[in-house]
Design brief:
Mean pLDDT: 95
CATH architecture of the largest domain: 3-Layer(aba) Sandwich
Low-confidence stretches: none
Bound molecules: GDP-alpha-D-glucose
Strand content: 15-25%
Helix content: 40-55%
Number of helices: 16
Distance between the termini: 28 Å
CATH topology of the largest domain: Rossmann fold
Largest sheet: 10 strands, mixed
Structural class: alpha/beta
Number of domains: 2
Length: about 475
């Protein structure tokens, strides 16, 4: 059967979270927070669009349903597929490989074949739901085979793909046993979008290197078609942050957080998924050395590190948690005082309003990933500082560094550079800090997540 949607989004996850079922036992869902769904919501509603994805639990998929005017089409994953396609090939092979192999990628044939099977299932679902000539937008590294698989089923469709994470240079990508298959998979799209220009250039070079495609600038010739590769840096829902910041309760909460931390002169904040790409260990080490050298001291300065639980069944992540927690314990053992730890470590998930209250309370935000496609936390922090207070320390290896040039930029592998950037951010005079923040804010107001979605879809629509 061919469905009715003229616009289809295909992503690993549906943009909903399951809530406890009602008295009759009926399953209930609510839209999950996130810039991607906010940006795509108007387009989905206007075009009676459908979002295809996994509903989040193992076993048979629920029947298609609707939340907030969006048609949701669940795709099932069983427990083996979650282990092989998702935790295996997606998060233990592709994720580390695409992030500079900061942890060694693991290559397993069984994971790769599960990835193939699941990608075929998503492709079949999209082929079923898309109306003749529809636009289909495939998201991210879990679904890189979908563009080609879908084109073979439905050559009438206009297909876009966006990669949220970095795309590696030739030397690294060539390690992947499925390198040709992945390149062919992505080249099934009409437009392949990346966070950064460099990633798009890597992709064009690889198309030539792996498949011998002719290329010219950002265009690749593949099987008689022209495929365009370009950068579309993703951004945040700035209106959401404005709404939260305008709420007096959040500013009260932020003052309360400062008081609860003992009203220190300087609060340093980190907010990350607990992921080895985010550079949490390096950041802690830099802070410890500054304490050892007396360049900062407790109780004047405290650090708050929110490390949101993530991919807890994957080995690399379990090992990381042990290392981070050991380092936090060591710093607090050496430098904490009764009732005043040097590092407040929170391995928990918070509400959006609590996060924004933390952003408002923090004098220095540290975003120091070893490699990151974009990093939305950096952009959210800047957006939340409408008061132009606060300073941002930002890794050169986050995609966001190409736009947020007024941050205190540093190489996260160079511990002395991280320490210097942090000290500069702590001591910067308030006029200069304000100037830096205002420039970055102006940039984000012009380049929010709706702008991102519009630019991608306009480009996709204009390709001939
Ligand atoms: C991937 C790419 C790219 C964090 N803790 C909590 C919470 N968060 C929110 C943040 C932010 C989001 O999660 C994290 O986004 P990032 O961009 O920082 O990182 P990834 O999850 O790795 O995202 C990345 C992104 O995709 C988009 O393309 O920028 O490079 O790796 O919005 O605020 N939200 C809530 N509670 C928490 O405890 N509610």
């Amino acid at each position: 059967m061919t469905g009715q949607s003229s616009f289809v989004v295909v992503a690993n996850r549906l943009p909903v979270d399951e809530m406890p079922s009602d008295e009759s036992g009926e399953r209930r869902w609510r839209r999950s927070p996130g810039g991607l769904v906010t940006a795509l919501h108007p387009v989905l509603v206007q075009r009676d669009g459908t979002w295809i994805g996994w509903a989040g639990s193992a076993g048979p998929a629920p029947a298609p349903f609707m939340v907030d005017g969006i048609n949701l089409h669940p795709v099932p994953l069983d427990a083996d597929e979650i282990a092989r396609y998702y935790e295996g090939q997606s998060n233990s092979t592709i994720w580390p490989l695409y992030h500079d192999a900061v942890e060694p990628p693991i290559f397993r044939r069984r994971w790769a074949s599960s990835y193939r099977e699941v990608n075929a299932r998503f492709s079949e679902a999209a082929a079923e739901v898309a109306a003749p000539g529809a636009t289909v937008w495939v998201q991210d590294y879990q679904l890189q085979l979908v563009p080609d698989m879908l084109r073979r089923l439905r050559p009438d469709l206009r297909i876009g793909f966006f990669l949220h994470i970095p795309f590696p240079p030739i030397e690294l990508f060539m390690q992947l046993p499925q390198r040709a298959e992945i390149m062919r998979g992505l080249l099934g799209a009409d437009l392949v979008g990346f966070q950064q220009r460099l990633a798009a250039q890597n992709f064009v070079r690889l198309a030539h290197h792996v498949l011998g495609c002719q290329t010219s600038g950002s265009v690749i010739e593949h099987e008689g078609r022209r495929v365009k590769a370009a950068a579309f840096p993703i951004s945040i829902d700035i209106e959401e942050i404005d709404r939260l910041v305008d709420n007096p309760l959040i500013l009260t909460r932020s003052e309360q957080i400062r008081a609860e931390l003992g009203d220190p002169k300087t609060i340093i904040l980190g907010v990350d998924r607990l992921d080895y790409t985010k550079g949490i260990e390096h950041r802690l080490k830099a802070f410890r050395e500054l304490l050892e050298e007396n360049r900062v001291g407790v109780p004047d300065t405290v650090m708050v590190q929110v490390a949101t639980p993530s991919r807890e069944r994957v080995e690399h992540y379990q090992a990381l948690r042990v290392k981070v927690e050991r380092e936090v314990g060591r710093i607090n053992g050496d430098f904490g005082r009764v009732g005043v730890p040097a590092v407040h470590y929170l391995h928990q998930s918070y509400s959006r309003s609590e996060l924004v209250a933390l952003y408002r309370a923090a004098d220095v935000m540290m975003v120091t990933p070893l490699r990151d496609g974009m990093n939305l936390v950096a952009k959210e922090y800047v957006a939340a500082r409408g008061d132009a207070g606060g300073s941002l320390v930002l890794s050169e290896f986050a995609g966001a560094a190409s736009e947020l040039r007024q941050a205190f930029l540093c190489n996260p592998h160079d511990l002395d550079a991280v320490k210097d950037a942090l000290v500069r951010a702590v001591h910067v005079d308030s006029d200069e800090a304000r100037k830096r923040m205002s420039i970055m804010q102006r940039h984000l107001r012009r380049n929010d997540v709706s702008h991102w979605a519009r630019s991608f879809l306009t480009e996709l629509g204009s390709l001939t």
